[in-house]
Design goal:
Leucine-rich repeat, LRR (right-handed beta-alpha superhelix), 2 domains, 17 strands, seven-stranded antiparallel β-sheet, signal, mainly beta, single chain, 3 helices, 323 residues
Amino acid sequence: LDSEAFENLTVSSLSLQNCGLRSLSYEVFRPLLNSRSLTTLRLTSNSLTTLDARFEPFFRNLSFLSLARNPFICDCKLMWLSRTLQRKRRADSDDAFPRISDDRLPIVLDDDHPVCESPNRLRGKQIVSLTTGDFFCGPPQMRALEVDFSDLRVGHSKTLNMTGVVLIKCAAQGSPEMQLVWFRRDRRGGEPTRLPGLRQVAPGVIEVSISHSLLAKNSNIETEDTGEVFTCLGMDTYGNTSADLSLRWPTLPLPSPLPSSSTSSNRNLMEPSSGDSKYLDSDKGQFQSDRLDEFFFMVRSHFPHLTSSVTTMKRASLFARNK
């Protein structure tokens, strides 16, 4: 619609049906709102997915409103419309008998009620019948991170390269449509890559196994592990939340030669020397947040030399470090 389509006009009934409208500009309709002359509005069979909340007083004062057959996205942005239609239904029911002879129809037939096109859980449901519990307002919130090193064991090997595997888990709170993903990048500033193999273990909770080639110390080889950063990202209609998990992998001492009498490789696990018996621990004192009681970080470890830290989108940090 042209920005001045309704300037200096007095309109009591307006029909914009089957016009292919994808959006409705509040500024275009402002002259009609100010004139208080419009009583009937038909917007049936267009391509409207949402409506500006500023239309609420405008719609509330109409005698007749039809919004049927539009592919509405029933997210938090449309909560106001559900409440407005509910108020109109109650008001029209109260006024039905006094206005029985009026030529204006105060209550829209059920077949002409606007319904939700998405999300899938609300598809086909009348907007007027939605409750507060059907809407999820506000961005998602990160609730917990867990790093499990308990299965990380390295057996004796004649090679310098060994692979370590740990499990990382992320939990966030949001709408049923919230998406959770893990990204991986190194500390050198490389582009993050999405981690494959994600497993959803519960609503709003995902986990993934990560592996890394562990280098053994050797006096003839200079090795340096700059570490990696893993980002859990929760995406929702109203925003996103994220937490960074920083891991610095260990450089392992070369194993001692195995006794010739050894028969079981399962028992030949590399153990830390007495001077390196440091294990991961968590320190909640480093976490600064106004929702500390709702964020939880857990480290499960029996492996030395690993350093881990967590950073939320608020730049708060929680460290798990060697002590």
